[in-house]
Amino acid sequence: MIKELTKFRLGMITAVIGTVVLGFLLLLGILGYFLGFGEFPYIMTGALSVLTAITLLQWLFSPLLIKSLYKLHEVTPSDPNYNWLYNIVQEVSIYNRISIPKVYIADVPFPNAFAFSSPLYGKNVAVTLPLLKILTPEEIKAVVGHELGHLKHRDTELLLAVGLIPTLLYWLGYSLWWSGILGGGNGRNNNGGSLFLIGIVMIALSYLFNFLVLFLNRMRESYADVNAALTIPQGARNLQTALAKIVLYTDPRVLEKAKKTAGGSVGKMLFFSSLERPEISSSDVEELVQLWKMQKVSRLSDIFSDHPHPAKRIKMLDKFIS
After folding, report:
1. Is pTM, for the whole model, over 0.90?
2. Are 59 and 156 in contact (CB under 8 A)?
């Protein structure tokens, strides 16, 4: 277990440092060569200042948008209907040795749970009504353990910081693209055609960098899975069955797909594609978990997703079941 935890911590640190260093080296090489290395610090300082300010505002006030979008209702210890959910979050917070976040129920038609935070609105965790209906209390604890892992690891801040790299590439590329169209610019290659070409290249690089951000996000989700497995009693096993129930609720045909196509994509986790509310049998849940354990998954199966393929998550969690 310690080996797996160390592996994820080192992987996260390496991925973050690698993404940031590679991004700035590309910016230094492209802008320095075409616009002059003497002007590079001024360009970077100006661009970073603007984008950092925008990102900080987004971080500070995004909880307001989330609360409105998901129709969040805060749960308190005295809530007559859902005080038991508050108690679960409180218990999981104790396991994780963090202060209890604000607890919300989201009135949306798909099963999900998510955490969010900001200096103005503190730490928050939300669970949707369908998730409460299909999971057992022990499975909810495992899911909450996953979400509190995000808060404990400061994943919101991490992704906002790393996300500055592709945003910076795109913003500078878009600016140079327009400068090229308008025929402006100065530096080593100051004709409009060069600026236009630089802009196109930087915009393309910004999209490529998003794949690195997605990869980092998949690592972040796996790290949160590990947190649930290590901090919640029987967390790994309960998270496995919770994931299976979420997928079966979202796509009732997933079990047949898994039977027919070994290694086939089951779909993106924690995204809704159907509003059906099927009955989920324990036998179907167990069968799907076992199929995922045996399923051979391509390394590129989740390259376009911000969550690991569910079969990968199940296999990784299996390492924490004694």
Report:
1. no
2. yes
